[in-house]
Design brief:
By secondary structure, this protein is mostly beta strands. It is 10% helix and 48% strand. The protein has an 8-stranded antiparallel beta sheet with strand order 1-6-7-8-2-3-4-5.
Amino acid sequence: MTTREIPRNEWLHFCDSLTNRHIGANVRLEVLSPDLGDQVEAEDVPLQGVSADKRERDNMIEITLGKTREKRVTRAIQGTTHLRVKQDEEGTDQALEIESSDGVTTLLVFRPTILPAKREGSPES
C-alpha cells in the first residue's frame, strides 16, 4: 500500500475527482484523537461527497455521508494540515486520511465493492 500526500493547491480538484469515483459507495468514517482515542463515527454508510473549501486560508475539508437528509452524517475538518490518499498496488483508493492542526486524524475508509456472483448460464459466464 502506498500513501500519497495531496498538495494544498490540488485539494479542490482531488476531492471532486474522489467524490466522482466513490459516490454512493459504502464507507467507514473514523476519528483518531489523541485526547479521546479512536472512534468510529459511521459504518457502511454511502458516500455523498468530499469537498475542499475554495479559499485556501480556511483549509477545511467536509465529508458528507448518508442516503437521505434525515440520516445524513457530515464531518467538517477545520484547520486541515495534510490530505493523503492510501492506495493499493493497483492504484485503487483504500482510504483518505485528513490530518488537522489540533492533532486529530479523520479516516475515510472505502469498502471493497463486492460484485454479485455470476450464475451459470448467464451471458457473462
